[in-house]
Amino acid sequence: MNELVGLILAAGKGTRMKSKLPKVLHKVAGKAMVERVLEAAQSVGAQRNVVIVGFGGDDVKAYLGDRAEYVTQLEQKGTGHAVQQAESVLGNHEGLILLLCGDTPLVTQQTLEQLLAHHKETGAAATVLTAYMDNPYGYGRIIRNEAKSVERIVEEKDGTLDELKVHEVNTGMYIFNSKELWPCLEQLSDDNAQGELYITDVVSILVKAGKTVSAYMTMDSDESLGVNSRLQLAQAELILRNRTNLALMEAGVTLVDPHSTYIAPEVVVGPDTIIYPNTTLEGNTVVGTNNILGPNTRLSNVTVGDNNHIHDSYAHDCEIKNDTVIGPFVHLRPDTVLSDKVKIGNFVEVKNSVVGEGTKFPHLSYIGDSDVGSKVNIGCGTITVNYDGKKKHRTTIEDKVFVGCNSNLVAPVTVGSESYVAAGSTITKDVPSRALAFGRARQVVKENWVTEDTFKK
Ligand code: UD1
Ligand code: CA
After folding, report:
1. Cut 0.70: pTM above it
2. How many separate domains does the chain show?
3. C-beta of residue 37 within 8 angstroms of C-beta of residue 51
């Protein structure tokens, strides 16, 4: 059996982050770092994944849920000590262990596949993923012997001046043959600058026992960025953003200014969509083709069809079909579905509503908990009065209704198809189809109310 299991170290506090949140839960492009690492392990076939938790462990477990198994490391005595904790669940595993750190969120499926292939080809007991870094400061250095084979890894704090000149670093990602790993862990010692058990010492232990340790160097050193500080968190964010933007441009999406365009790597955008600056697409967002998005627009968990123009607006957890015009200053809230050719403009909020084809809410409206038909025109300032202080009620506006400006529709209420609501009405009763409803005081005119006396001092 050559089954691969993932083992992810995520127990550390991340002291250098100066945070109450465990380091691995800090987000890069909208997802916790440890989640990105877990997904990388899954992407190369690790169906079973064990996460070592400690500081903030309950939070990590709650975040990842049943996507992983958990082992607690009560005291954080180093990466080697963390791996020792996993022996209780993986000690009998026959196959390969992909060991990853929860703070290296940029690693890709492709690189891990290459690491695995290299490990299988060389038949080594362990393979370390290494990278060449112009500035290797802070990383463990790969020390090779005269024959250029890997001999050991030395940490920044333990290295001699000569050793620290080495630019090949340990990325903290490894493949181990499970059977070879566990006996070595018994031999780890904390006789080092940090007084910790280092997993990196397994390399020299294996080599001394006459086993082969192989190294596979990734060409993209960005992938191995380990996030230990807020600065590195921002660097990770930037690298991932650039990677995502580049892939989108290569796939036919125009980014007017990639430097101010924030798209999560999971987001899908179809070709010939043009994205203007200061636009954020995040979460489970899928955008079709030939749309114009932004500037100043945020879409979070939104499904967008084709040929829409959405600018200066915020939408979340909703669906926008095709050929719509949205913005400026529109807020689309959860469970809203906009059909084709809808137009929503200036200062309009829509929540939990289904809006039919060709319908328009052009200005200053709140439409909540509503079922709106097709070709409806909602006049400026119209409000669905959906909340009585205790419960929410629905408003139904059927096809081709015309609602005059500044009207209140007090739910539950139905406005029948092809009917008209006079401007300034407060509608509390259902309006039948093709009716005209007034719900306002009659205008009173007092003629000649103004006299010459009105103008005297
Ligand atoms: C580690 C490596 C270093 C490598 C670097 C790559 C060791 C000794 N050093 O250093 O060679 O270049 O990663 O990024 O392994 N953790 C635990 N329990 C602990 C300690 C750490 O679970 O007791 C976890 C942390 O949560 C973190 C990961 O292990 O996700 C790495 O620990 P960290 O302290 O960041 O190691 P580095 O100093 O970066
Ligand atoms: Ca680290």
Report:
1. yes
2. 2
3. no
